[in-house]
Write a structure and sequence with these properties.
23% strand, 117 residues
Length: 117
């Protein structure tokens, strides 16, 4: 996978900067067994709808991943290593937590600059 967001240029304008991975899973994959019901973001129950959002993958060295979630699951569209200073700050905050995490404010600011959003 490319360590560059230029490979995903077609998706950048669709980024939902407020979406987090947990909400995407709830909206697209677990809509039948939760109370995630409000007028702003009702669960997705039809095929063809999706969200594109950034998350942080901490299974290895922290990297920003551009994700696409639909009712069939998630797909990593592209990724980029988080700069060393931001990665160090993130690791200090999360200790040894491994997984797909939401963006921290400094990483979100860096990503917005990277994609010129």
């Amino acid at each position: 996978m490319s360590n560059d967001f230029r490979a995903c240029k077609e998706w950048i304008n669709e980024v939902n900067w407020d979406m987090i991975h947990e909400d995407a899973v709830t909206l697209y994959l677990e809509w039948g067994n939760n109370n995630y019901r409000d007028d702003m973001r009702s669960p997705v129950t039809r095929s063809g709808e999706y969200s594109v959002y950034f998350a942080i993958d901490t299974w290895g060295a922290p990297k920003a991943v551009l994700m696409k979630m639909d009712n069939y699951g998630s797909q990593v569209l592209c990724s980029k290593d988080v700069p060393d200073d931001l990665a160090r700050e993130l690791r200090n905050d999360i200790k040894n937590i491994k997984g797909i995490l939401g963006l921290t404010p400094p990483i979100k600011a860096w990503l917005r600059q990277e994609v010129n959003a």
